[in-house]
């Protein structure tokens, strides 16, 4: 049976912002209500779904995407009939220009979202020689804290990135960011490169979709059995109609980070599964991106948000860690990355890191790699290369 979804409506009279609490920069995602605003039935998102078989639903392939598939010897009609599940490595679209992600209405229904496995954050061993002379001492583990619910009040810009890999449905985390060339109407999402592209040995993942404030009330697996779809995806599903990641990740990224780890970031341009306003207008918030690559002394503290899915977590709830950042590098020849203590596991990959700048919090990195014992996280410093990628995405696709 075909599945349908009505896009979530923005909550009227409410804006969600990322703010700092106190001079020590203990980061918190908070919502500020406008005068006279209160939760009511009319403030809640409207979303409906019906069940459909895996891969069912209507597939919309624009002519330009169908043409791109044909260029690589892929039949667009077969793709519609489930051919997207065929991961022929000889035809795996890998180059930056090859991204194809046609909408499949109803594919990411609630039970399929729950079945998605963590895309293991790229793991590095605690090799004493790794980054010798470049990395700071290992930070003490910081136990991840559960974000307050409902997420639409406390962390609306944060959500989950769902996608299909050769191993099946997978999940990462992401953040709604501002589009400087289209103020107030951003459709941009920041995540990790390895959440959209397999790196040097693979290509683009498929059916990439962003769900902001996933599982809004932090319900358990049992509670979600009969949950209102609007509680699972309060702002609906947002399909990536374009994705950009760094050439360094595409060429050198690997399961252990590799030479692409310091460039493990990506920007998605998304659109609602069915109609609606921009992502920023719908969610009511988007975050600025800080491309100044601040030092640890400048940043003072950083906070990472995400949906860890590997044990002891299950991917259903949002967590955060706040710590004083240090430096980390896989090799003296590679740029240093930011690193904080944090016990979040796979599934938190791509989740935004925030720091305070000029009195407000901004996105400064994203979760990329961590050790096998899940005691810390590292993320790329966002400098000129990251800003160029972001600007190109904004100028080329932002107005669509």
TrEMBL record:
Q: Which InterPro entries match?
A: Glutamyl_endopeptidase (IPR050966), Peptidase_S1_PA (IPR009003), Peptidase_S1_PA_chymotrypsin (IPR043504), TAT_signal (IPR006311)
Region span, Disordered: 36-59, 113-151
Q: Which Gene3D superfamilies match?
A: Trypsin-like serine proteases
UniProt keyword terms in alphabetical order: Signal
| SUPFAM superfamilies found in the cross-reference section | Trypsin-like serine proteases
Does the keyword section mention Signal? yes
Origin superkingdom? Bacteria
Q: Tell me where the signal peptide lies.
A: 1-35
Task: Quote the biased-composition stretches of kind Basic and acidic residues, using this chain's numbering.
Answer: 113-124
This chain's protein is named: V8-like Glu-specific endopeptidase
């Amino acid at each position: 049976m075909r599945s349908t979804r009505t896009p979530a409506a923005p909550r009227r009279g409410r804006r969600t912002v990322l703010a700092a609490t106190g001079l020590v920069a203990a980061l918190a995602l908070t919502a500020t209500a406008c005068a006279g605003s209160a939760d009511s039935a009319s403030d809640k998102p409207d979303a409906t779904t019906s069940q459909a078989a895996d891969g069912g639903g209507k597939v919309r392939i624009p002519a330009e995407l169908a043409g791109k598939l044909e260029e690589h010897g892929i039949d667009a009609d077969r793709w519609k009939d489930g051919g997207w599940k065929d991961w022929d490595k000889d035809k795996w679209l890998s180059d930056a220009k090859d991204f194809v992600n046609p909408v499949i209405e109803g594919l990411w229904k609630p039970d399929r979202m729950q079945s998605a496995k963590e895309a293991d954050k790229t793991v590095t061993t605690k090799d004493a020689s790794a980054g010798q002379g470049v990395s700071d001492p290992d930070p003490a583990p910081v136990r991840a804290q559960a974000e307050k619910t409902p997420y639409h009040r406390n962390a609306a810009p944060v959500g989950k990135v769902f996608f299909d890999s050769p191993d099946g449905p997978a999940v990462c985390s992401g953040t709604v960011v501002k589009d400087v060339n289209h103020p107030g109407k951003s459709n941009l999402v920041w995540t990790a490169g390895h959440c959209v592209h397999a790196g040097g040995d693979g290509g683009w993942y498929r059916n990439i979709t962003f769900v902001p404030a996933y599982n809004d009330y932090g319900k358990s697996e049992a509670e979600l059995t009969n949950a209102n779809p609007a509680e699972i995806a309060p702002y609906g599903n947002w399909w990536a109609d374009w994705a950009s990641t760094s050439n360094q990740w595409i060429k050198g990224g690997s399961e252990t980070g590799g030479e692409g780890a310091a460039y493990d970031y990506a920007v998605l341009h998304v659109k609602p599964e069915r109609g609606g306003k921009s992502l920023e207008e719908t969610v009511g918030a988007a975050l600025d991106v800080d491309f100044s690559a601040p030092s640890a002394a400048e940043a003072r503290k950083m906070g990472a948000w995400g949906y860890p899915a590997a044990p002891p977590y299950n991917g259903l709830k949002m967590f955060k860690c706040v710590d004083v950042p240090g430096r980390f590098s896989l090799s003296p020849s590679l740029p240093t990355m930011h690193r904080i203590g944090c016990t979040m596991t796979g599934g938190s990959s791509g989740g935004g890191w925030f720091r305070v700048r000029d009195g407000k919090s901004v996105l400064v990195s994203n979760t990329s790699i961590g050790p096998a014992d899940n005691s810390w996280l590292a993320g790329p410093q966002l400098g000129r290369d990251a800003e160029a990628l972001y600007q190109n995405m904004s100028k080329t696709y932002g107005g669509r």
